[in-house]
Amino acid sequence: MKGRYYLRKFLREEHLPTKFCPGCGLGIVMNLFLKAVDESGYKELSGKFVFVSGIGCSAWIPSPYFKADSIHVTHGRSIPVATGIKLAKPELKVVVFGGDGDLAGIGLHHLIFAAHRNVELTVIMCNNMTYAMTGGQAAPTTPYGVKTVTTPYGKISKELDISKILVDAGSSYVARWTTAHPIQLKKSFKKALEINGFSFVEVYSQCPTRFGKELNMFKPVEMMEWFKRNSKVLKKGETIENGEMKLVLGEFVERKRHGYCELYYRNILGEELEKWR
Question: Which of 108, 99, 109 is nearest to 136 (CA)?
């Protein structure tokens, strides 16, 4: 029984249990991320990681629960703050948690240019396809035709494919899974933490409280089954084009590029950091 809860060593007991809605997928994301950290050999988070998050349900994953330094910033501004931390403390792992409203809506321009510069950040975007915390408004990732409180007749624009945008922008690593694909998701978290450059993992996460009811799915298991029925894992050499599939999953890019902070220290400050030798 003791081993079943071994990941609690990374969490602040005084803040447990979490405040996520019953059935929310964010608990799954938190658990799999901490498993990836543990399996990567980290005994603790403090002194090794800094977590940055903006506004939204997903932003509460690291703060106040993780035993580590974390910064909660204004809506959509987590990426520039995380970039500043990485430049000041390049030896730390800087991880950003956010939702699709925070990262793909309010802060999309920051997200794109961090990928373009290949800043050495790990960004995890929990995509529940709506602005869940603020009432269920349509987000850039809300699928075409879905009714929300701001699109009562159905959304008339197609959803943005954020992972594809960040592949094109120049990311070192981009992957996308759902909470119904835990093994693949954990492996991508581990890989994202190892990459020297900008790494991005998008997670389709169920929100029965807000988005689920728009699809007439009120139970979390219904949404996870919907994820499985309406997803396709890309094989090597296939494109990201969605076609008839709503959820295209897989590892979309993994490439070696010099990171922005590495080049900044080398070319501007004239320093070679031990971390990058």
Answer: 99
pTM: 0.92
- pLDDT, tens digit (0-9, with 9 covering 90-100), for 186-236: 999 999 999 999 999 999 999 988 887 777 888 889 999 999 999 989 876
Tens digits of per-residue pLDDT, 146-177? 888 889 898 999 899 999 999 999 999 999 99
Under CATH, which architecture does the 19-276 domain have?
3-Layer(aba) Sandwich (3.40)
* Domain assignments of the chain as residue spans, ordered by start: 19-276
CB-CB contact of 253 with 234 (8 Å)? no
The rounded radius of gyration (Å) of the Cα atoms in the chain is 18
150/175 Cα distance (integer angstroms): 30
